[in-house]
Structures are given as C-alpha cells and as structure tokens.
Design a protein that fits this description.
Layout: E1 9-12, H1 18-29, E2 33-38, H2 41-53, E3 60-62, H3 68-81, E4 87-90, H4 105-133, E5 136-141, H5 154-174, E6 179-186, H6 192-195, H7 199-207, H8 217-228, E7 239-242
Parallel strand pairs: 1-2, 1-4, 2-3, 4-5, 5-6, 6-7
Helix pairs in contact: 1-8, 3-4, 4-5
This protein binds acetoacetyl-coenzyme A.
C-alpha cells in the first residue's frame, strides 16, 4: 500500500488462532488498519499482551460469529468507532472430528454454525456498506477437506465445501460493485488445530503430503494479504489451494 493512500480497514474473524494471528500480522505489516475479532475473552487478553510485546497494537472486537445478531452488533460498533470494513477475512473455525456413525447432532450443529453460518453472518452484515462505497474484499478460509474426503470430518467438510458455493455466488452478485469474493483452501498447516490430531494419525497424514511437511501459517497469510490488495481487483470467485500437493485436480 502506498503511503498517501487511505488505510483500508481489515476485519479478521477468529483472529486469536494460529492462522488468524499470522493474517493479522501480515495485514498490519502491509499497512492495513486491522481489527481482530475474538470469542473468548481470556484467550484474547493473553493474545493482546503477546501481540503488543511484539509491536502489534490491534483493536479487538467480540462477536460469536455463529450468531447473526452478535455479528451485527460487532459490525455496528466497528462502523461507529473506526468506519466501514473494507476487507473481511472469514477465518473463524472449529473442528469436532469423529466418525459419522458416532457424530452427535451437537457436533454437527456447532461446526456448521461456526464454520459456515459465520460466513453468511459476516458477509451479510458488511456487504451493503461495501456496495455503498463500491469497494470491498472478502476472503473466505475454507480447507482442503472441503474439496476432498477426510475420515471423521463430515461436519467440517460439509461446512468448508459450503463456503465455495457462497463465495462463487456472492462473487458474481457483487463483481460490478468493486467487490471481490474469494476462497483460500489451506491444507494441513502447523496450527494448534492440526496439532490436536493424535500424533500417529498426524504422521500418517503428513506422509500423504507430497511436499513432505505441514504448511506454515505465513504461507496462508501471504495469500490473504495479496487477495486483500487493490491489485487483486480482477480475481473473484476463485479458490486458492495451498496444500503442498496433497490434493491436486
Ligand atoms: N480411514 C478408514 N477407516 C478409519 C480411519 C481412516 N482414516 N480412521 C479410523 N478408521 C476406522 C477405525 O479403524 C474404526 O474401525 P472399526 O469400527 O472397524 O474398528 C472406525 O473407523 C472408527 O474409528 P474410531 O473409533 O477411531 O473413530 P472416531 O470416531 O474416534 O474418529 C478420528 C477417529 C478422531 C476422526 C481420527 O481418525 C482422526 O483424528 N482423524 C483425522 C481427522 C483430521 O484429519 N482432522 C483434521 C483436523 S485439522 C483441520 O481440519 C484443518 C484443515 O482444514 C486441514
């Protein structure tokens, strides 16, 4: 971003997680005014302290992204305190892995709400202000497991696959308004979420990645920052697969 340009406002949901943190840092380093959405106060306080120690002073805003009204309240506050969200990164997500025959309704519901409804809730609340200003960038963080099958992830795969339908449809609806909507599908990245998979299962999974390793959070954040830029204006409805060759098609 050039120095004389307006500071674009970027909201990252689930900012206190592994991927979110890397995205926040990259966007701040690239000159954006970044807002970090969080869900758990105690985790956010710890995160904030650590980020400040590293030189990142980022405003934190609470919302339960699975709740339409909670997101609405957050966006209203941001609008009042800072202004219109120019860039939205739908990054918040959870896993509740388990074989489908044992999957509880609660684990299905929690994942669909947190990983898919969240994208609707956030997009719906930012889209009209973006249309009003004829500018916006929406980046939905899906997963390699929304593109292929993964044992134990029927809920997660359904939600992440759903994100593609939302991305593509919204992309064509707002393409003439200066707004782009894209998806990034990370493979297995070295975050707490992936490290929570039992070690021997994780080792088996890594063997299926031709690059021979887990991805780095920076490798996803870098692509987010590019899609957030003005230069990415002609890229919309696209999906970036960043998975070390684990799923090529
Ligand atoms: N393929 C085929 N069969 C399998 C299997 C596999 N990968 N894993 C287990 N099974 C079989 C078991 O042998 C067992 O068979 P029997 O009933 O005949 O004994 C049956 O399936 C049920 O096994 P479990 O009781 O172990 O199943 P579970 O409900 O406890 O679930 C699991 C196991 C927790 C899902 C475990 O397999 C696992 O952790 N898998 C990895 C899931 C994964 O990749 N998660 C990604 C998290 S990170 C992320 O999501 C980020 C991202 O975007 C990539």
């Amino acid at each position: 971003m050039k120095k004389d340009e307006k500071k674009y406002v970027a909201l990252v949901t689930g900012a206190t997680g592994g991927l979110g943190t890397a995205m926040v840092k990259h966007l701040v380093d690239d000159g954006y005014l970044v807002i970090a959405n969080y869900h758990t106060r105690a985790k956010a306080d710890k995160w904030n302290e650590k980020m400040k120690a590293e030189g990142y002073d980022v405003p934190l805003y609470y919302a339960d992204v699975s709740d339409f009204n909670s997101v609405g309240e957050m966006i209203e506050k941001i609008q009042k305190d800072i202004g219109t969200v120019d860039i939205l990164v739908n990054n918040a997500g959870i896993t509740r892995d388990g074989a489908f025959r044992k999957m509880t309704f609660e684990n299905w519901d929690a994942v669909i709400r947190t990983n898919l409804y969240s994208a609707f809730n956030c997009c719906r609340h930012v889209i009209n202000p973006m249309i009003d200003q004829q500018y916006g960038r929406i980046i939905n963080i899906s997963s390699v497991n929304g593109q292929r099958a993964q044992f134990g992830q029927a809920n997660y795969a359904a939600a992440k696959a759903g994100m593609h339908g939302l991305t593509k449809t919204l992309a064509i609806e707002v393409a003439s308004k200066g707004i782009t909507v894209n998806t990034i599908s990370p493979g297995y990245i070295g975050t707490d979420m992936v490290m929570a998979v039992a070690e021997e299962i994780r080792e088996q999974i890594i063997k299926t990645i031709p690059a021979g390793r887990l991805g780095g959070t920076y490798e996803i954040a870098h692509r987010v920052s590019f899609l957030a830029s003005k230069d990415a204006a002609f890229i919309t409805g696209a999906n970036y697969c960043i998975n070390g060759g684990q799923h090529v098609f």
